[in-house]
Amino acid sequence: MSATGQPPSSDEVAHRVGALRREWRAFWLALQFFTRLPTPQFEGFRPEWLNDAAKWFPAVGLVVGAISAAVMWGAAQVLPVPIAAGLALAAGAVVTGAFHEDGLADTFDALGGHVDRAKALAIMKDSRIGSYGALALVVVTGLRWVALAALPLAVAVPALFAAHALARGGATALMARLHYVRDEDGKSKPLAVALGAGSLSVALVTAALPLAALSAWRPPTWPLWAAAALGVLAVHAFCARWYRRRLGGFTGDALGCAEQLGEAAALLGVVAALPLAASLAVGP
């Protein structure tokens, strides 16, 4: 029904259908950009479609997180949990083409040393990896791996699923807080350069959905998911300050870096909160 209580007109129906089609297209574009999964092809591509897709970045995390979590659970049926955790991380990298890992390495190569903004942006465009980038990949991937291995399988699997969406939500929020650092001499790497309040709300709600569902499913586990959210919030605050000070804004690589740091922080938060959740489950 329309706002007047009358059946919607044909124009209103057409408008609603068109809006649904735009959102459907935006989701698939986000999935196409951030993963190697098969997606529909859209004719007549326009750059503004990319900004429409930004709100669905955390939804891409739900897809990648579900695949990674399924690999971990399946592998753990026949292999030790630490090995299953490594396979799950490998699956996530394969699905995304190590897109975010590349951003992590490029960002640390650019910002790890004491160089000016112009030099940092030039380093980010260099396809070679340096010592800062290599070290960041080893440390952050290692932290994600050992955090998953330290958790019981029944906790590690949902934590991995939730971390993917949550970390992408934190990275997406940077686009609303900072402005894109345009490099006119190079190809833009981010999927979008702007994020409005409405799109940000959709992204944050999507990112928080796994936490809400897991807390409702098993209420005593709420400290785990609260700690995961706090970890991502801490990374968001750190990256916002770091990028503003060193770059004056964000780049596509910087968003990928924030996503990887957010995943690690979320998983470490779950590990840290595990004793509290266990005590709540046991009760007085």
Fold and architecture overview:
With 284 residues, the chain is an all-alpha fold. The chain is 74% helix and 0% strand. It has helices at 10-34, 48-53, 57-76, 81-96, 99-111, 117-125, 131-150, 153-177, 197-217, 222-246, 252-282. Helix 5 (99-111) packs across helix 7 and helix 7 crosses helix 8. It is globular.
How many β-strand stretches? 0
Fraction in beta strands: under 5%
Summing up helix and strand content along with how strands pair, one would put the structural category as mainly alpha
Q: Which term fits the overall shape?
A: globular
Overall pLDDT score = 89
Radius of gyration: 20 Å
| Distance from first to last alpha carbon | 52 Å
Q: Keyphrases for this structure?
A:
284 residues; mainly alpha; 74% helix; globular
At a glance:
With 284 residues, the protein is mostly helical. The protein is built from eleven helices and no strands. The protein has helices at 10-34, 48-53, 57-76, 81-96, 99-111, 117-125, 131-150, 153-177, 197-217, 222-246, 252-282.
Please render the helix and strand layout as text.
Elements: H1 10-34, H2 48-53, H3 57-76, H4 81-96, H5 99-111, H6 117-125, H7 131-150, H8 153-177, H9 197-217, H10 222-246, H11 252-282
Helix pairs in contact: 3-4, 3-8, 3-9, 4-7, 5-6, 5-7, 5-11, 7-8, 7-11, 8-9, 8-10, 8-11, 9-10, 10-11
